[in-house]
Amino acid sequence: MAEWLKAHAWKACIWQHIEGSNPFLSANSLLCFMPKGNYYKINDILCRICVKRYKLNLFFMRFYFPILTLFVFFGAFAQEEVVEKKAVVDSLYREDQFYLNFTYNKLQNLKGLRQNKFSSGFSIGFLRDMPINKNRTFAVAVGLGYSLNILNDNLYISKPYGGETYNYQFISSDVYYDKNKLSLHYIDLPIEFRWRASTPESHIFWRIYTGFKMSYLVGDRYKFANDIQTVIYKGNADFNKLQYGCYLAAGWNTWNFYAYYGLSPIFKSAVINGESTKMNTFNIGLQFYIL
Predict the structure, then answer these.
(1) Which end of the chain is more exposed for a tag (fewer CB within 10 A), N or C?
(2) How many CB atoms are located within 10 Å of the residue 130 CB?
(3) Residue 77 to residues 17, 64, 66, 68, 201: CA-CA distances in angstroms?
């Protein structure tokens, strides 16, 4: 019996599989059967192989799962960080390519003219931003826009029935009227020189933009209304079709101060109280830039 066990010692060593609650917690154990009262030598080589295999299983069971978890976690974190950096940094950025402003309008260089209501203005358009330095803090912008100027004052416009010429006079303060409004519609061509403190990482910055604007009159409408009559005139040939002037826009982030001063007169041929007039416009308000 002893001789047979020596020759077949590997058969006396049996691997027993121990199943755990998690596949990584399962293991194999080595059982060696020794009959009572019989002593024999187990083959040294087979025993060493069995022990090494047992220890290797324990190593993977204890360390493989935590190490794998760490690799997956740090790999996902690194990938997310790289994607985020690429998304926020754009070294070839452009700024402030759409604009919108609201203004208070006033006519200049005419004695006796006074406001009777708030004279408002509105402008919207697109400006192509073209940086001229490496840091993109200086730029030139050229664009196209639309503006509406409304003037509520005491300048009365009339035209004789069947006549071609218009007459202009001031409305006396003791005359009642409900409305005396002039609306002017323009197509604008602004050109700007820009300075800003922007960076690729931030879109909140200081800006100072100076510009020159040319405007073409595409529509005019005058309305006077009181208890007796309502008068409406359109297409007055006395208005200058081409207007031009300079402007300034400066501010922080969303809020920007805006001012425009017209260098050309509104009327090309208008006589008030026997004198030709050279009225020009002055607009002041807020300008907002987008994208």
Answers:
(1) N
(2) 12
(3) 38, 20, 17, 14, 21
| DSSP codes of every residue in 227-255 | SS-EEEEE--TTB-SEEEEEEEEEEETTE
Residue entry with tokens 């006077």? 224
Coil vs helix vs strand at 216: strand
Query: Contact, 96 vs 127, CB < 8 A?
Result: yes
Q: Please state, in angstroms and rounded to a whole number, the distance separating the CA atoms of residues 243 and 260.
A: 12
- CA 13 to each of CA 34, 48, 219: distance values in angstroms, whole numbers, following the listed order: 10, 12, 105
* DSSP track, 195-211: EE--BTTB---EEEEEE
User: How many residues does the structure list for the chain?
Assistant: 291
CA–CA gap between residue 210 and residue 245 (Å, rounded)? 11
Strand order in the sheet with 167-170: 155-158, 167-170, 271-272, 275-276
Q: Which residues contact 115 (CB under 8 A, 6 or more apart)?
A: 106, 152, 153
The one-digit pLDDT tens for each residue of the chain (291 residues) are 555 544 554 444 444 444 444 444 444 444 444 444 444 444 455 455 555 565 655 555 565 556 656 555 556 555 544 444 455 566 788 889 999 999 999 999 888 899 988 999 999 999 999 999 999 999 999 999 999 999 999 999 999 887 888 999 999 888 899 999 999 999 999 999 999 999 888 878 999 999 999 999 999 999 999 999 999 999 999 999 999 999 999 999 989 999 999 999 999 878 887 777 889 999 999 999 988
At residue 157, the 3 state secondary structure works out as strand
User: Which of 275, 269, 274 minimizes the C-alpha distance to 164?
Assistant: 269
Instruction: Provide the 3-class DSSP secondary structure of residue 62.
Output: helix
Find, among 284, 135, 287, 258, the residue nearest to 196 by Cα: 135
